[in-house]
Structure formats: structure tokens, C-alpha cells
From TrEMBL:
Residues 1-72 form the USP domain. It comes from Dibothriocephalus latus (Fish tapeworm). Pfam families: UCH. Its EC number is 3.4.19.12. It catalyses: Thiol-dependent hydrolysis of ester, thioester, amide, peptide and isopeptide bonds formed by the C-terminal Gly of ubiquitin (a 76-residue protein attached to proteins as an intracellular targeting signal). This is ubiquitinyl hydrolase 1. GO terms for molecular function: cysteine-type deubiquitinase activity. SUPFAM superfamilies: Cysteine proteinases (SSF54001).
């Protein structure tokens, strides 16, 4: 039975950016927005009452306050 069991060894981790939180205004007040990735190359700007598609270039040029990453574990068969 052991020959039919495939084990995985964690070899490395990669991280994918999935959200960028933005802040505009002063340190004690202001406005927050978020750019969230909904799929490969598909980003949306979430701003209070609206969600609109935006380009990757838009995401990369915003005033980022917090970056959120998803951990991708790469496994190698042994």
C-alpha cells in the first residue's frame, strides 16, 4: 500500500499580491479604498458604494497603505 501513497515535501513558498489598501487625507482623518484582485490580471477598486474594474497600472501607481499577500506553497513530489 505504501507504494500508492504520494507524499509532498514543501520546497518553497511564493506570495501573490491580492489586495492593496489605500489611504488619502491626513493622518488623523481621510478616506480608505481597496484594490482587490478577483482573478489573473482582473483588479477592482472598492470605494464605499461602488466597485469598478481598474487596470494593473492603476493598482501599481496608487498610494499604497497596506499590501495583502496570499501564500502559495509549492510542493514537490517525492
Amino acid at each position: 500500500m505504501q507504494s500508492f501513497i504520494v507524499s509532498f515535501i514543501v520546497s518553497a513558498c511564493r506570495y501573490s499580491l491580492y489586495a492593496v489598501l489605500n489611504h488619502s487625507g491626513q493622518t488623523n482623518s481621510g478616506h480608505y479604498t481597496a484594490c482587490i484582485r478577483f482573478g489573473p490580471g482582473c483588479w477592482c477598486l472598492c470605494d464605499d458604494q461602488k466597485i469598478v474594474p481598474v487596470s494593473v497600472d492603476y493598482v501599481l501607481t496608487t498610494d499604497a497603505y497596506v499590501l495583502l499577500y496570499h501564500k502559495n506553497i509549492l510542493a514537490v513530489r517525492s
